[in-house]
Amino acid sequence: MYKLIKRENHARRGELQTVHGTVQTPAFMNVATAAAIKGAVSAYDLKDIKCQVMLSNTYHLHLRPGDDVVRKMGGVRKFTGWDGPVLTDSGGFQVFSLAKLRNIKEEGVTFASHIDGHRIFMGPEESMRIQSNLGSTIAMAFDECVENPAEYDYAKNSCARTARWLRRCKAEMNRLNALPDTINPNQMLFGINQGCTYIDLRVNHMKEIAELGLDGYAIGGLAVGEPAEVMYEVIEAVEEHMPQDKIRYLMGVGTPTNILEAVHRGVDLFDCVMPSRNARHGHAFTNEGVRNMLNAKYTLDDQPIDPTCDCPVCRKFSRAYIHHLFKAGEMLAMRLTVMHNLYFYNNLMERIRNALDEDRFEAFYQEYSEKFNKRI
């Protein structure tokens, strides 16, 4: 259940109450695709870097080790050691982005595994059953992720299909949650708004799925190459028609500036691989901007990555040491930088919540929205 505590213009301060704990929002979910953060970071590490929600991937865990294996191990939380809320995405994005060969029908999608090429079928019911086996706190509805740009008529038909699939997801989740041996009988379902960058399709689709009374609503299919200004226009158009008493989730976004802009427009929840992916290539987020730890100027620099940061990495390690680790090809370089970046994102969300609590979010937004983009 989502509780809206207060607002500052469109920005919202709230909390999401789940069977696995309460999430203070706005919040960022840390992406553990295959039940682990890439960069040798474990679920136990997440506790040290202010993580509230871990996100895992339905498609990848279905292929390896298999959702049946995860179920036998007690679900994804017990499997990983993470005791907080977990969101699992539906697998839809991966089906459409990773599968070279796929055939979309009303029943669902037949596609080839990106690992070994074997044929797999996934539809709304299959996605719900996999996520039920994973035992996540929140399951995402199975949707079609349409390429941007797409033909208007195709996008319109896809929206209609995604809405029909959503109704099937809801019915199947209700059935699964009622079974006596379900790992999490309180699993929540979030629906996903689609429609490419066509404002009328986005608005109509949002109005339609808002009537289903789901636990939360996501905006999907953005941050896939369209200009940031277009993304913000879509958020503004859709936000007006999202239920006020339900949590809003912007999928796959983004940079610290993107997050600030989206909070400013009424979004509550975020996820993105960017902080961990960029970290593995030496790019560290700081309050001054983005720092490239591969730069030679850090060879003799005894300062932490960010002098204003109190993460476990900045408290103990110098820029010179992390620079050396990258140059030496040591895995520790990635681990330390990933931990710093995730802490930066989680701490940013805490600072946003504090600003909202103290009625100064607008000033915080104005101060940092451009600063975070700066390359040092």
Automatic annotation (TrEMBL):
GO molecular function, one term: metal ion binding
Residues in the signal sequence: none
CC cofactor: Zn(2+)
Function: Catalyzes the base-exchange of a guanine (G) residue with the queuine precursor 7-aminomethyl-7-deazaguanine (PreQ1) at position 34 (anticodon wobble position) in tRNAs with GU(N) anticodons (tRNA-Asp, -Asn, -His and -Tyr). Catalysis occurs through a double-displacement mechanism. The nucleophile active site attacks the C1' of nucleotide 34 to detach the guanine base from the RNA, forming a covalent enzyme-RNA intermediate. The proton acceptor active site deprotonates the incoming PreQ1, allowing a nucleophilic attack on the C1' of the ribose to form the product.
Gene3D superfamilies noted in UniProt: Queuine tRNA-ribosyltransferase-like
Protein name as it appears in the record: Queuine tRNA-ribosyltransferase
Name of the encoding gene: tgt
Catalyzed reactions per annotation: 7-aminomethyl-7-carbaguanine + guanosine(34) in tRNA = 7-aminomethyl-7-carbaguanosine(34) in tRNA + guanine
Binding site for substrate: D89, S90, G91, G92, F93, D143, Q194, G221
EC nos: 2.4.2.29
Highest taxon listed in the record's lineage: Bacteria
Class of the enzyme per the UniProt entry, highest EC level: transferase
Source organism (scientific name): Hominenteromicrobium mulieris
